[in-house]
Amino acid sequence: MIETCSKRCMLIGTVCLGVLTIVILILESQLAETLSGNHKMRNKTFPTENNSTCWMHQPYKIISECHPCSDFEIRSKSIGVCIHTSFKEILKCENGETVTRSCDRVAYLEERAFWKFTIWSFVLGTASSVAVMLRTRVLNHKAKRRARQVLANGSI
Question: Where are the transmembrane segments (predicted)?
């Protein structure tokens, strides 16, 4: 079935699939941002510094987004929240109390890892496609040369 498709048809199909992938990624990103509001974070229980839970009972402001703890903080265990997930975020409760809370993951690190994977996949896919096209060209050239030789020799 796929053998009957022309190069143009295959290219159009590949481009359509690429566009569809990008559209799905954009929609998924928008949906993830919509669902990851503070109301969802309130239900998660993360270890906090000094056992403060003011962020569970009152409004809070995120002073520092979730980011990795330094190697020193993890090894020295100076900040207890870094032991659990190696990530921390700093919150400021409405009453003025500042709390350091352990968090799941760092969004920008995950996004960077995703884009690295996507780019490497694209590069490897492109290199593979080019290698296949070059190999096909070489094999077609050899087949034509053999056919010419057979026809030139007069033996059919």
Answer: 9-27, 117-136
Distances in Å between the Cα of 74 and the Cα atoms of 13, 14, 81, 84 are 49, 46, 9, 9
Q: Which residue is listed with tokens 């059919």?
A: 156
Q: Residue 79, Cβ neighbours under 10 Å: how many?
A: 16
How many residues are listed for the chain in this entry? 156
Distance from C-alpha of 22 to C-alpha of 123, rounded to nearest angstrom: 17
Q: Which residue has the higher pLDDT, 56 or 8?
A: 8
More confident residue, 45 or 112: 112
Q: What percentage of the chain carries pLDDT values higher than 90?
A: 29
Q: How far apart are the first and last CA of the chain?
A: 31
> Strand, coil or helix: what is 101?
strand
The 3-state DSSP class for residue 106 equals: coil
pTM (2 decimals)? 0.45
